[in-house]
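We emphasize that the prediction below concerns an isolated chain of 138 residues; any contacts that depend on oligomerization or on bound cofactors are therefore not represented. The input was used exactly as deposited, without trimming of termini.
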Amino acid sequence: MPTKAEIVDFLAREFPQSKCIVEEVGDRSATVSHPIGTAQLRPGDTVSGPLLMAVADVALYVAILGTIGLVPLAVTTSFNINFLRKPSARNPIVGVCRLMKVGRILVVGEVALYSDRKEDMVAHAVGTYSIPPNRLGQ
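Result of the prediction step, given as a token string:
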């Protein structure tokens, strides 16, 4: 399986627009974070929903890459998020992913999102990825 450094290089090459930082990659798990600035805020001085969804999706993708290898064409097929509380405008958003099912065709994972690791979740997401039959990169 790819190392954290290989996944970071892959994401930098394939998704140069992403500001997510890969913090940890484990077996069926990953932790990513995203810094917060004025561009990520919405009225009410809170982090935007689209940013929370992006962090969750990247955490899920990184966990998948770390589990099955660098599969560029793995894609999100289903995504659900519950916004639980207002995130802080001062802390990075942290997404902690755990894969619940890793199959040949589908992978299902959940992501807990935090704005401070010592506090309660600000959002919870569940997503499904489709894995192409020809796993490029393996």
